[in-house]
Amino acid sequence: SSSSSSSLTTTSDTAIDLNLKKAFAYVPPKEPKRVFLSILVATSRRGELINFFHLKKRSMIGNTSMDAELSLIQANLSKAREGTLVLDPFCGTASLLLPCAYFGSHVVGGDIAFQVIHGIGRTSRANQKHKERGPKENIWSNFDQYGIRSKLVDVLVADTAMPSWLDEEIFDAIVSDPPYGIREPARKIGSTKETRSDLVDMNLEERYPQSEEYDLGSIFSDLILFAAHRLVVGGRLTFWIPEVLEQGLEVPTHPCMVVVASSQQLLTARIARRLITMEKARSPQEGDIVECELPKDWNVRSHVFINDG
């Protein structure tokens, strides 16, 4: 009795499966209803390029070197291409400049951290026998590694708070990931009691001025103002800015600059960061200032470290 019942159930299930297959089976028409003609415009190299620029394979990295995929995205948003000049004023190990150079741009960088610019000091790689950077752990080696050394104009020790660049519209794009004061401190050249006459007998090639804390609010105001004066009209500024989720974020603006994209990346349950893309709409005029400036005491450290309120 139980055997016959089991057999009946199996037979019934099989019949239902066959009926479902018939009901939903696709039978192509004898003649096509419509014909579409298309042209292959491009294929994606996303996976290939992410692997190509992977940080684990790079000659020199730092504590804040940008992830390969994100640096490629930022280069695309910046419209990096042949015949353009791209600047990163907080270049570090040049992780944002490398994809720009790969896409054809000539690139130039600056950073106040002279150890990084000159490839000296402690290595950022784990499990190394030698704690100091090796002879190929420098920015130039990174460009050599990817066969794009000819695209590197130069990198120099420079302070974004006191720009060394001509006050002219010369850059087609500015890419940046300013320090947030979490993994790396934000610094600028500070005041010193030394006078010009005190420096006459010093070897200035080996002397670096004092530095002081660069408050987070001023970093972004200075960056946007810098872009307003030194980008060509139509040029783009792309930069990362931290965001405390419970507070929201009002990005500083400038009459010359228009926000064209804002993408959020969640970091923890409390903080995120945004990739802001601005495009220069016109040349600056007298009276133009940065609007919606962030407070000078604005920070994200207190939302990351318990004892840093």
Structure characterization notes:
- The chain is α/β, with parallel strands linked by helices and about 300 residues long.
- The protein contains seven helices and nine strands; from the N terminus they run H-H-H-E-H-E-H-H-E-E-E-E-H-E-E-E.
- The chain has a seven-stranded mixed beta sheet. Strands 5-6 form a two-stranded antiparallel sheet.
- Mean pLDDT is about 85; it is low at about 1-10.
Q: What's the SSE pattern? A: HHHEHEHHEEEEHEEE
Terminus-to-terminus distance:
77 Å
Structural class: alpha/beta
* Rg estimate, integer Å: 27 Å
Molecular shape: globular
Helix content: 10-25%
Count of alpha and pi helical runs: 7
Q: Major sheet, described briefly? A: 7 strands, mixed
Outline the low-pLDDT stretches.
2-8
| Arrangement of strands in the largest sheet | 3-2-1-4-7-9-8
| Secondary structure tally: strands | 9
* pLDDT averaged over residues: 83
Strand content: 15-25%
